[in-house]
Amino acid sequence: MQTRSSRRLANKRNAANTSSSKDVKSTRSKSPATTKRRASTSKANPKAAAKEAEKAKPTLTPRQWAALNPKTKHYEFGGPLGAFAMVTCLPLLVLLFAFGCDSTGYEPLTRGYRFISDLVQFKFDLDMLISMLTSWNPTAFFCFIIFSAQLVTFTMSLPGEEIQGTELRDGSKLTYRLNGLSVLQTSMTMILMTSKSQGLYFPIWVADNFRHFAVASLFIAFLVSIIAYLSSFRGQKLLALGGNTGNTIYDFMIGRELNPRINTFDVKYFTELRPGLIAWFFLNICMAIKQYSTLQRLTNSMILVVLFQAFYILDALWNEASILSTMDITTDGFGFMLAFGNFCWVPMMYSLQARYLSDFPLDLPYWLVAVVITLEVGGYYIFRASNSQKDSFRQKPDDPKNKDLEYITTRSGSRLLTSGWWGKARHINYLGDWMMSIAWCLPCGFSSVIPWFYCIYFAILLIHRERRDDAKCRDKYGKDWDRYCEKVPYRIVPGVY
């Protein structure tokens, strides 16, 4: 038997489902009564209002969905050939660094070349190949899966502030729960509680089995990427404008669906801020404990690297709301690029400095310590101050501290800063980011170029990302972007580039 309120709710739903419209904008329109009810709900309970708005996504016709998801005609990253290279070569690079670096030497490329050369020329020992297979440690594989599953569980269950992201092309706004620091803290507590009776055995075991964890992270990255790609064809999904080419390998790599979700669990948002950063944090600690077990102390270089990178990770989780306005969330689809980058590349490649110092301990002279600290502090100040200024200008344009900032208004209504930090360079925050990368690599010295891989790779990544952003903005703003570039001519480094 239906109550009066349940009948009213059913009538509302039937009315919503039977309403038709000629275009997307008319589908998004709301009656004054509905708007009034939602406004009152928003004042009474902002979280409930956010969830109600998310559930009230407009029902669009197939024709309207086709208009929202046009075919992608422009390729990035070298098109299908470049996508194939990324899907094959980057995982091989991770394996080379995992298996080609140890306490006997950091020569991943040389060892990899020798191994492949021997295979091609049939100059290999069969017993050696069999021993490689039998030495596989399944415990490390299951540990990484359990670790990832715990992060998912904590992300879904732990409380946190819930905020809405930017408006999507279909008129909806997704709700995100900010609990990254709570997830890290809970994960750390669980690991300490389960391994406290073992002393230093567990973190040393993790460090010694790093290569097996690298293989496990690759497996998870491919599994998540395949599931995300296949699920993007089920039902009505909002696709990324850059990932709907129809080419399987390219769409798989770049990401086809914009915001894949399982109920309210946002897969892309979770992947961006949880597995990569938190695994990187724990791997660094394991490498430091391994060095301590060998020397009975920590070198100043290891202390600097672990502290700097831990601070970077904690800062990212503390300011996790800022990621909602980045290209990764608003523009890029979720595919192999993001899944591999965060499940595998970040923890396994970004922990390279701590790993190197655990195998080759190094104490820095005091003057070099001062240089490293100066680079880190200066880089962080530029990175955080510039990003904070941009976020404040976007979120609180009427704030008194923003009143003296100069900007130009585009035809689309967007405002582009031409003074302050953003008057010095169009991506001045990238400069601070790169300065910090130097501060992380410099403590490893100059005996090997391998620990400097991150600094070199990161420079290439930032330049490429700046070029991508420039192309998108030029396409979006047209002549207004040319006018903006005249006022802010430098891309990343003021006076240089």
TrEMBL record:
Belongs to the ERG4/ERG24 family. It is a multi-pass membrane protein. GO terms for biological process: ergosterol biosynthetic process. This is Delta(14)-sterol reductase ERG24. GO terms for cellular component: endoplasmic reticulum membrane. PANTHER family: DELTA(14)-STEROL REDUCTASE, DELTA(14)-STEROL REDUCTASE TM7SF2. The chain crosses the membrane at residues 81-100, 136-154, 174-193, 213-231, 297-314, 334-352, 364-383, 437-463. The keyword NADP applies. Residues 1-11 have a biased composition (Basic residues). It is an enzyme of class 1 (oxidoreductase). Residues 1-63 are annotated as: Disordered. The keyword Oxidoreductase applies. It comes from the Eukaryota.
